[in-house]
């Protein structure tokens, strides 16, 4: 499984992402994606399918935003990839990952995702008939411990395509700080 992060989650990148997530100001976050167009184009193409990490429904209703889905659409504009925001589903309401330790994050996400049966069957038929997707990319805004992306990618494996993960930014490892 390939893991791609476009930026380190630090300094101005962190500020841009926080403005997007907390204040709804997507201008700088979208600029980050556009600036990484060359990197995006080397990893994503028209035969890729992007799956955003689903948000808990109550949180999405409160914020009115779905950051991972927005990110997928921006990536698709650059790469020509397709986006399916309905295939990967969240099971239940989990606490926010940002308030948890690494061990708690893994436990929190281990059974948090599944594939929607109706969309899964339709996608399998489409792949069988047309062969138009060669890989899946599970997409999230920030990669910290990798628990969310790991378990979401695990849920996507039954589709039978190679599964990769992409984040806008990843938290620097201790040796990088």
Number of strands: 7
Task: Quickly count the helices.
Answer: 8
How can the largest sheet be summarized? 5 strands, parallel
> What is the terminal-to-terminal distance?
26 Å
**CATH class category label:** Alpha Beta
Chain-wise SSE layout:
Blueprint: E1 3-8, H1 11-23, H2 27-35, H3 37-43, E2 48-52, H4 57-63, H5 67-79, E3 82-83, E4 88-90, H6 102-109, E5 113-115, H7 117-130, E6 135-143, H8 147-156, E7 163-170
Parallel strand pairs: 1-7, 2-3, 2-6, 6-7
Antiparallel strand pairs: 4-5
Helix pairs in contact: 1-2, 6-8
Describe this structure in words.
- The chain is α/β, with parallel strands linked by helices and 177 residues long.
- It has a single domain (3-172), classed as Rossmann fold, CATH 3.40.50.
- The chain is built from eight helices and seven strands; from the N terminus they run βαααβααββαβαβαβ.
- Strands 1-7-6-2-3 form a five-stranded parallel β-sheet, sandwiched between helices.
- Helix 8 links the parallel strand 6 and strand 7.
- Helix 1 packs across helix 2 and helix 6 (102-109) packs parallel to helix 8.
- The model has no long low-confidence stretch (mean pLDDT 87).
Keywords:
single chain, 177 residues, alpha/beta, Rossmann fold, two-stranded antiparallel ribbon, 8 helices, 46% helix, globular
Could you give a quick summary of the protein structure above?
With about 180 residues, this protein is of the alpha/beta class. About 45% of the residues lie in helices and about 20% in strands. The chain has a five-stranded parallel sheet with strand order 1-7-6-2-3, sandwiched between helices.
